[in-house]
Amino acid sequence: MSLVLLFCIVFAGTFGYFLIEGWNLFDSFYMTIITLSTVGYSEVHPLSHEGRIFTSFLIFAGVGVAFYVFTMITEAVVSGQLQDFLGRKRLESKLETLHDHYIICGYGRIGKHICHMIAKEVPFVVIEKNPKVIEEIDKAGFLYLEGDATQEEVLQKAGIERAKGLVSVLRSDADNVYITLTARGLNSKLFIIARADEEHVEQKLKRAGADKVVSPYLIGARRMALSILRPAVTDFLELVTPTKHLELQLEEVRISSKSDLVGKTLINSQLRKISGAIILAIKKVTGEMVLNPPPDYEFEPGDVLVALGDRESLAALEELAFGRKKLKDFL
């Protein structure tokens, strides 16, 4: 509204000088501008008595409006720049405090689901270069970094040296390979999961340093085929897959050296009776996976228990495995 009013005043001033003084439109416009801006230049042409009266009214009517409009424009520009600057500073501060976090490269259909599923479990930052997608990430409330994840400096800004893991789910297999190779070079201990659309890319990703390679299309095809061949198995998998209305969960719990389970056998610990959780498998420190562990299996520090149960059962198992509670506390 104020800009429209200013335009009307400039228009009126230009045609006022044009009609009163008989100047051409350019000189009339220039005289109007220097009058409203109060820059102090000399008059374009000598003014008549009527022209001076008109200029006086133009000053009273227009200078205040002009300054108001210029002030509003300046405030908007400065305020926007200040907000952007403060926003970048807050983002940089949050990134600097991240530790043992995950870096999600790409916020497409797969990356979006990953973020929503892990949001309450682990800290993470999303790297995305599409401005429109950045707006979506911001609305979701996730920490993000705008940039190209294939660039080494962008990964460093995301705190890759302090990160626990990286998930590369860009649509381009070549980009995922490059990100994996770069990330492995920056952090040799990083746990890297990468997406592969083509089957032959899996070996390239593993050679580049990926710990896990996932093919969404292959997994989808296997799940659909399993629904045809083994529908009961599919129903079970859907039951233990994390959802909003989850009753059962598959969880992994690492046994601490302080845990009362260390040195105990599966049958002597009475885990099933105490916690209600079912131990499906145990991953040893060596990487060996013990499926359906026998009753005489002896727990060792660092063993990762793959357990099935409800939230309360798994919470009790965690308390025991982490050493926060003793076996006698449950008996």
Task: Report on this structure.
The chain is 52% helix and 14% strand. The chain is built from 13 helices and ten strands. A six-stranded parallel β-sheet has the order 3-2-1-4-5-6, sandwiched between helices. Strand 2 (124-128), helix 5 (131-140) and strand 3 form a beta-alpha-beta unit. Helix 1 runs antiparallel to helix 3 (49-97) and helix 9 (216-229) packs across helix 10. It is elongated and about 110 Å long. It starts with a helix and ends in a 10-residue tail after the last helix.
Short description:
The protein is an alpha/beta fold and 331 residues long. The chain is elongated.
Mean pLDDT across every amino acid position: 84
Tell me the overall shape: elongated
| Helical segment count | 13
* Biggest sheet overview: 6 strands, parallel
Unreliable runs, pLDDT <50, ≥5 residues?
none
β-strand amount: 5-15%
CA distance, first residue to last residue: 76 Å
What is the radius of gyration?
A: 34 Å
Q: What's the number of extended β-strand segments?
A: 10
Please trace the helix and strand order, writing H or E for each element: HHHEHEHEHEHEHEHHEHHEEEH
Assign a percent range to the helix content.
40-55%
Overall SS class: alpha/beta
Write out the strand line-up for the largest beta sheet, numbering strands in chain order: 3-2-1-4-5-6
Which key terms come to mind for this protein?
four-stranded antiparallel β-sheet, 10 strands, 331 residues, alpha/beta, 52% helix
Give the SSE layout.
Layout (H helix, E strand, L loop, with lengths): L1 H19 L4 H13 L11 H49 L4 E4 L3 H10 L5 E5 L2 H10 L3 E3 L5 H6 L7 E4 L4 H14 L4 E5 L5 H8 L3 E3 L1 H14 L1 H10 L8 E6 L11 H4 L1 H5 L2 E6 L5 E3 L12 E6 L1 H11 L10
Parallel strand pairs: 1-2, 1-4, 2-3, 4-5, 5-6
Antiparallel strand pairs: 7-10, 8-9, 8-10
Helix pairs in contact: 1-2, 1-3, 2-3, 7-8, 9-10
